[in-house]
Task: structure prediction
Amino acid sequence: MLAHNDFIVFSKLMTIPKHPVTRGTKASLEFTRSAMASKLNWLRAGVLGANDGIMSTSGLILGVAASPGVTSATIVVAGVAAVVAGSISMAGGEYTSVSAQRDSEKAALQVEKQELFDNPEAELRELAWFYEQKGISPKLAIKVAEELTNKDALKAHAEAELGIDSEHHVSPIQAALSSFIAFALGGALPLLAVIGPWVEYRIHATVTSVVFALILTGYVGAKIGGAKTGKGILRNLVISLATMGVTYVIGHLVGTSVA
Result:
């Protein structure tokens, strides 16, 4: 998750001035943006998790609420079950996915480490070749490869060949916990709206609360991705409202036929 100072930097990155900046300032901003990339990925995952919680929980709640004669207790039970099951499912899936990613990274690093031990000269030429492909002259590429190898050979090869950081690996537990919390918070909103004292207007209250929440997640998601906020919000609303509409109609049809 992002610390307070990280959010300040993120806000600055999202409001870079439109007028020309000096080369040094531009380079500094690009470096800061690169350093924030991994943390922004966690924020993006949190936003998506919350959005999933809002959509799936509201869809299920409206599907059940649309059934003729359904009681408030039934809706509450269905909503709570949806939030709990969805949160656990999201956390479990994220834990499995991230664990597999971490294991593959470690396995690849172990192979690279063995290759560096068995044939360091060939690995040095290979590293230089990677930099040549980026447009660096052969003479300078071999010099860069030699200096990086002398400093940390495994780190240099991991970044150039594998695109991973040999010193930092993703945490399955952190990913699972973040997904669990994000989904639960997102799913709690439509649940709270539907169990309010406004029984006759519970569907209206749920839809209204969901729309406001989706506008927020759509806005934040678009900002993180650098896309236009209006387009991101509209896409988020259309997909989510369609989900709720379909489940409401199906819930009404099924409930009527069963009754």
About this structure: The radius of gyration is 25 Å. The chain has one domain: 48-258.
